[in-house]
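Dear colleague,

Thank you for sharing your sequence with our group. We've completed the structure prediction you requested, and as agreed, I am returning the results in plain text so they can be pasted directly into your records. Please verify that the sequence below matches your submission; if there's any discrepancy, let me know and we will rerun it promptly.
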Amino acid sequence: EFYTDGDAPNCPTCNGFGYKGRRAISEALYFSREIRHMIVEAGETIDEDGIRQQAISEGMFTLQGSARQVVKSGETSPEEMRRVVASES
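Please find the predicted structure tokens below.
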């Protein structure tokens, strides 16, 4: 759980951050038949964006999606999520 700004700026537990500890966020890619085919057929020039779009269309759980779940559950703030997960490249 985290505090909002001003709740506990001098908190000895969290040192004023509003929460303490770490929570893993992850991204998982399932190598479906289609994705394997895209990689094998690509040769020397792999279409990373194409593979990513295919993976997302197949239900890939992205890093940002994982971070959003942690925010929704109240384990961290939207600001912290944006700080840690600046962008998906």
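Summary note from our side: Residues 39 and 48 are 9 Å apart (CA to CA).

Kind regards,
the structure core
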